[in-house]
Amino acid sequence: MITDPIADFLTRIRNAVNAKHRIVEVPASNVKKAITQILFEKGYILNYKFEEEGPQGTIKIALKYHPVTKQPAITTITRVSTPGLRKYADSESLPRVMNGLGIAIISTSQGIMTDKEARKLHIGGEVLCYVS
Fold this sequence. Notes:
This protein has 132 residues and is an alpha+beta fold. It is built from three helices and eight strands, in the order αβαββββββαβ.
């Protein structure tokens, strides 16, 4: 049993990037699907596919690397809010990752979104993770 499935999801991606894998497979959930879609929209992953096999399903994520230097698009991916210590921020105090070069993924009342989208809508929420 996993106590923090989002941290497990982020750790699988981090380990796959460090091992230079092309594809990583993780168990699916609605929160993980939303985070995966944000990572794809912001250009941190190459592609993804949701597979509905078994009771839970899986997410296959194709990781993105620079074609010449082979540097990964995701340099750091860090969990912020944990089940034991939740981190919340209002719209004025939302964090800026690498002075705006990275993204913070926020769980709000209107769904999961980046820090920039939440600032634009003037809503706060739980800070899930930082990606840069």
